[in-house]
């Protein structure tokens, strides 16, 4: 195991003339829960896709546990994309079977327990689930892998506020604690209590990477307050 889980050096990704990730230097350790925060279009999804190997850097270097994104890194990454990709006809039990076939590190018992505590039945079909329930089901599957790196792109956007805390607790008490969770979100105040670190992205650049404790101690404010200050329109 490498000391750092993620290292980026001069990492850059352009789509034509648009630079979405702009010379990022970053190190992330093991066993951390990190919020990837930034306004719309700041590069969060692009960064996550670079880590997954779905996009390739235009320049610079990116390593995950010492490997460039590829076969080795994909085996240790559990990725929740920003949209659902399962077929509508599938039942919860089919999803668990599908994950068990695909991923050697998938813990089916854990997934079924999580479904139960989230109120999702084994015979429930995706087609009949609400948007929020689909998100819960997908998140439970993703977190039931014993991965080194969990990449969650907007994991609870469609879930009602009352259920968010319960989901965060269910999910975060069940995953592999030596693993790192990197999640992008706009729901900062709902999530910040579970975060160890935050990465603020703006125009493809890291404008702040710090621990939540440091932010609270040094700034005397919550992550949500700091975010609103940094990203106030018109600044
Ligand atoms: N396929 C693409 N082709 C061209 N430009 C793109 C493409 N995908 C993203 N971009 C641009 O790259 C920038 C970063 O986009 P990205 O989706 O990574 O941002 P984001 O922070 O995830 O945004 P949001 O919070 O709205 O989801 C944006 O300016 C976006 O318009």
UniProtKB/TrEMBL annotation:
PROSITE patterns: ABC_TRANSPORTER_2. Keywords: ATP-binding, Nucleotide-binding, Transport. The keyword Nucleotide-binding applies. Residues 6-228 form the ABC transporter domain. The keyword Metal-binding does not apply. InterPro entries: AAA+_ATPase (IPR003593), ABC_transporter-like_ATP-bd (IPR003439), ABC_Transporter_VariousFunc (IPR051782), P-loop_NTPase (IPR027417). CDD domains: ABC_DR_subfamily_A. GO terms for molecular function: ATP binding; ATP hydrolysis activity. Pfam families: ABC_tran. PANTHER family: ABC TRANSPORTER ATP-BINDING PROTEIN ALBC-RELATED (PTHR42939). This is ABC transporter. It comes from Lacrimispora algidixylanolytica.
